């Protein structure tokens, strides 16, 4: 059965949702996106994703879609229509189509394109990978300099995932000037003793919505948090490592560039944070 997707005000079967070949997200990667998880048929961290979307749009001088204030209802309607219990909702806004190709932004009469679709993922929370942990390779961070904006320029992260796959691993951590920035689609952490270490916020990384929640829960649970850059060597000698994102929640990392992290099995801090995150996020879901 085909999905019902949302395109510029309409709920349509996926085969009927069409956008112009001149859409700037297609020609220029001139688009921003968000991924919100669904657990128990409810949205996780919706307010954070909506706020970051608003910021991404503002940073790129992109118009807000007219129905920006209806986004919560649109998400909920898609969950209902596609009967999603566990999964994700992908949302993309592009600068729209001016009916031709031009580097210059079109004027305000060209309306943004708003697309949302669901991804049904039964078992998202009870992911067996969380019991095994991720194996990571490190690669050079060759992305653009505004990684705080969640744009659809995902070719390099996609290449990174392919490099990881070719090496028999699950993901890649990106390294710039000798320090880890983040994962291809997640924020990166190490644990040393009783301290959780993750890179500080700047234009160098995406300000993860899961990161913000996990650090809040960690501090509430009296865990120590240090927001600073770290190297691959420091990570390889850490007691634990993990990543966070909206779709993987808290995912332990057990190997980096062939070196086992700690015992080489998922660590207790990552496990505890995953449990707290899932429990608290389910309670706060809308
Ligand atoms: N960093 C990058 C580069 C990402 O692409 C993502 C998610 O897609 C994240 C971090 C995690 O962000 P969030 O927790 O908001 O999903």
Which helices and strands appear, and what pairs or packs with what?
Elements: E1 4-7, E2 10-13, H1 24-28, E3 31-39, E4 42-43, H2 46-59, H3 71-82, E5 87-94, E6 113-120, H4 129-132, E7 134-140, H5 155-166, E8 171-176, E9 179-183, E10 187-192, E11 195-198, H6 209-220, E12 224-227, H7 232-236, E13 240-245, E14 249-256, E15 259-260, H8 268-284
Parallel strand pairs: 7-8, 7-14, 11-12
Antiparallel strand pairs: 1-2, 1-6, 3-4, 3-5, 5-6, 8-9, 10-11, 10-13, 13-14, 14-15
Helix pairs in contact: 6-8
Bound molecules: pyridoxal-5'-phosphate.
Pyridoxal-5'-phosphate binds at residues 35, 182, 185-187, 206, 208-211, 244-246.
Shape: globular
Report low-confidence residues grouped into runs of 5 or more.
Answer: none
**Helix content range:** 25-40%
Instruction: Write down the secondary-structure element order.
Output: EEHEEHHEEHEHEEEEHEHEEEH
Portion of residues in beta strands equals: 25-35%
Overall pLDDT metric: 98
Largest sheet: 9 strands, mixed
List how many beta strands DSSP finds: 15
Radius of gyration: 19 Å
Tell me the span between the first and last alpha carbons: 26 Å
Task: Please tally the helical runs, counting DSSP H or I stretches of 4 or more residues.
Answer: 8
Counting helices, strands and paired strands, the structural category is alpha+beta
Bound molecules: pyridoxal-5'-phosphate
């Amino acid at each position: 059965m085909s999905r019902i997707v949302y395109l510029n005000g309409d709920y349509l079967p996926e085969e009927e949702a069409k956008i112009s070949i001149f859409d700037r997200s297609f020609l220029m990667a001139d688009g921003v996106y968000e991924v919100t998880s669904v657990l128990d048929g409810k949205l996780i961290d919706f307010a954070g994703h909506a706020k970051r979307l608003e910021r991404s749009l503002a940073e790129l001088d992109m118009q807000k879609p007219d129905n920006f204030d209806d986004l919560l209802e649109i998400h909920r309607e898609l969950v209902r229509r596609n009967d999603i219990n566990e999964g994700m909702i992908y949302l993309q806004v592009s600068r729209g189509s001016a009916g031709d190709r031009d580097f210059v932004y079109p004027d305000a009469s060209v309306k943004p394109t708003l697309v949302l679709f669901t991804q049904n993922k039964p078992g998202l929370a009870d992911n067996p990978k969380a019991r095994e942990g991720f194996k990571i390779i490190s690669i050079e961070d060759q992305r653009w300099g505004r990684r705080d904006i969640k744009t659809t320029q995902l070719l390099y992260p996609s290449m990174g995932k392919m490099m990881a796959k070719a090496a028999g691993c699950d993901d890649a951590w990106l390294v710039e000037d000798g320090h880890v920035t983040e994962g291809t689609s997640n924020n990166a952490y190490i644990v040393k003793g009783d301290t959780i270490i993750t890179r500080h916020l700047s234009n160098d990384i995406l300000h993860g919505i899961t990161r913000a929640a996990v650090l809040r829960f960690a501090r509430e649970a009296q865990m120590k948090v240090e927001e600073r850059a770290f190297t691959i060597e420091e990570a390889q000698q850490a007691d634990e490592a993990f990543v966070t994102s909206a779709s993987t929640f808290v995912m332990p990392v057990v190997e980096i560039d062939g070196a086992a992290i700690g015992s080489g099995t998922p660590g207790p801090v990552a496990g505890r944070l995953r449990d707290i995150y899932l429990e608290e996020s389910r309670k706060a879901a809308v």
